[in-house]
Amino acid sequence: MALKEEVNSMAYKADCIFCKIVKGEIPCVKIYEDEKALVFMDIAPLNRGHVLIVPKEHYETIIEMEPEIYGWLGRVVTKVAKAVQDTLKPDGINVMQLNGKAANQVVPHVHIHVVPRNYGDGLTISAWEPIPGIMDVIKSTSEAIKKNL
């Protein structure tokens, strides 16, 4: 397991590709940067204009993050999504953030995808058909989650 290092009071993981991009060790096609976030084009885009927003500091999942940092990223996502919409005029936009291998997270560094969508583009969110749940289970799960907030 690679150790985290601190540079300019930010934690980085030595073997993390996104940390290397943030530090400038690996090039990217950057479109925005501020003190806490870096935004660059995905080099394996699902569609033209597929953008990634990453925190500069290393966090594998949002579970490790303070809410304020994720909130900061949310503001950046909004700004970027508006720019993508104004530039490419897609029919819609997917905003996705995956946590853990079971959720299909490929790079273990928090990142948010902004993916322009157009009717007929062939992209799907497979096997996600809403099926009504069991209300008692929904309510008891809600109560259990509330206890941990």
Report on this model:
Helix content is 27%, strand content 22%. It has helices spanning 17-22, 67-88, 135-146; strands spanning 4-7, 10-13, 30-33, 37-41, 51-55, 92-96, 112-117. The two termini are 31 Å apart. The protein contains three helices and seven strands; from the N terminus they run E-E-H-E-E-E-H-E-E-H. The chain is an alpha+beta fold and 149 residues long. The strands form two sheets. A five-stranded antiparallel beta sheet has the order 3-4-5-7-6, covered by helices on one side.
What low-confidence regions span 5 or more consecutive residues with pLDDT below 50? none
- Helix proportion of residues, in percent? 25-40%
Number of helices: 3
Report strand order across the widest sheet.
3-4-5-7-6
Question: Could you outline the blueprint of secondary structure elements for this entry?
Answer:
Elements: E1 4-7, E2 10-13, H1 17-22, E3 30-33, E4 37-41, E5 51-55, H2 67-88, E6 92-96, E7 112-117, H3 135-146
Antiparallel strand pairs: 1-2, 3-4, 4-5, 5-7, 6-7
Top keywords for this entry?
single chain; 149 residues; globular
Task: Give a brief outline of the structure.
With 149 residues, the protein is of the alpha+beta class. Helix content is 27%, strand content 22%. A hairpin with a 3-residue loop joins strand 3 and strand 4.
